[in-house]
Amino acid sequence: MPSMNEEKAKPNRQLEGEFDYIVIGAGTAGCVLANRLSEDKDVQVLLIEAGGKDDYHWIHVPVGYLYCIGNPRTDWLYKTQAEPGLNGRSLSYPRGRVLGGSSSINGMIYMRGQREDYDDWARATNDPSWAWQNVLPVFKRSEDYYGGASESHGAGGPWRVEKQRLKWKVLETFAQAAQQTGIPATDDFNRGDNSGVGYFDVNQKRGIRWNASKAFLRPAMQRPNLTIITGAHTERLVFEGRRCTGVEYRGGDTHFVAKARCEVILSSGAVNSPQLLELSGIGNGARLQQLGIDVVRDLPGVGENLQDHLQLRMAFKVNGVRTLNTASAHWWGKLMIGLQYLLLQSGPMSMAPSQLGAFAKSDPDDRALTRPDLEYHVQPLSLDRFGEPLHRFNAFTASVCQLRPTSRGSIHIESNDPHSAPLIAPNYLSTDYDRHVAANALRLTRRIAAAPALARYGPEEILPGIQFQTEEELQQAAGQVGTTIFHPVGTCRMGLADDPAAVVDNRLRVIGVAGLRVVDASVMPTITSGNTNSPTLMIAERASDMIRADRRARQSGLETDTYRPQTVSLA
What we know:
There is one protein chain. The protein is an alpha/beta fold. The protein folds into 2 domains: about 1-155 and about 200-305 and about 410-420 and about 490-560, FAD/NAD(P)-binding domain (3-Layer(bba) Sandwich); about 165-200 and about 310-320 and about 355-400 and about 425-485, 2-Layer Sandwich (Cholesterol Oxidase, domain 2), CATH 3.30.410. The chain is built from 16 helices and 24 strands. It has helices at about 5-10, 30-35, 55-60, 65-70, 115-125, 130-140, 170-180, 210-215, 270-280, 285-290, 325, 330-345, 430-450, 450-455, 470-480, 535-555; strands at about 15-25, 45-50, 80, 90-95, 145, 160, 195-200, 205, 210, 225-230, 235-240, 245-250, 255-265, 280-285, 295-300, 310-315, 355-360, 375-380, 395-400, 410, 425, 460-465, 480-485, 515-520. Strands 1, 2, 10, 11, 12, 13 and 24 form a 7-stranded mixed β-sheet that branches. Strands 7, 16, 17, 18, 19, 22 and 23 form a 7-stranded antiparallel β-sheet that branches. Strands 3-4 form a two-stranded antiparallel sheet. Strand 11 (about 235-240) and strand 12 (about 245-250) form a beta hairpin. The termini are far apart.
């Protein structure tokens, strides 16, 4: 097996150029960073993306996620290892491989999470600037909220947030049934307390997907100080001692080297950021040496702490209410749906993958449970599994996920080949607590389905099935129907500099090396209580402030640690 030094001896490398900042990955975080950093006209920014342009038409039609996930044009096509908690099943693990990253193929749901999520981050980093009171203005700065500016929302920013352009009677009825079981109605999940049931807000503009590329990258593309390279697979970071000075990437059959005067910023996501760190010699030293990789910095936390939301899909056949299953069953139904979108940009083709949401407690009698720990994604359709045809009868799906799982997984390379997929082991349902919450989640869904509002449609559970009744059986059912909801985080988590499990500090600098930050969902110490795309955007907004402030501090001869934004204490 060749070592890193032998790899570096390959002759066909060309110098691409020298830049102040190199951003690796044009996903949500990378698009934000490229925009914000290039606002300073005296810096040169390079953005490197392995995928292509976001000019595939199915990216922009909301229902087009069906044609983007599992498509090598837009998806890395990752798979997990066989998961013991899922009865030995391996899952597809979609990640965006295109400008905009996963914001080009995701569910478009605008969700911040709960205030306690960020207060927990502040405690984990001993930095109150990560608390809810201090990140809320950052969320608002990015936001262009359909309802205008308010105490909770911003207007005029690049990140468009709109109401969905559809209604379904079966969803309205589910919301009524949820209220009958004690879940209150809400018209806004993003005030810091997302308790309740209601329609999700979405990142769309007049019924068209609004991804990070449209929001942040396109406005910056004409700047002469921003260079964007697509189809370029970053293979390794370049170090001089313990300072990161550039990157090596491959375009076609040619290997290139780009140099960074100030910093390299790794924004490749919770899967690819730890992969690239390990390929470059940062990670568990013993693991890297076994793969023939020279160790730059022994950081055993790299690739650990993987957290994800496991959704448990329950489906119910109904009578007397129409769903998408039958509305699209015949050619004329499909024609009407197509015309509705073509003329009005509304209807089923404008649908986010999930339309109705609910946040609830898995055990309302548990006094230690002070906030919702379950999230529902409810859809007016049903199918056996993703990618297969809809059922030919009316039915709805209620997927429920545990918001703050205690299970922890990992992502690690298995060779020093930068083009080999890493080993992804989420380790779902590996704790007694998570299995118990899963069983309670299935019970709660059945209570909602049995509430008077839905009972009139005679809901019949078809997935997983009423044969699962006892605690043990329900836990088995959770392993049978559980699947990822595409929220991997935490594999380069931030923490205190003396924490052996931390990878980056509170300013997202890789601990123990210079000139290198990680800015993406991988830095989250704990997963947010909801969808993770917009929290990642907020992280990138904060990071751009930090990076620009550090540069000004260096120019002024000040220590970079002296900069602190205005904050509100947790006390």
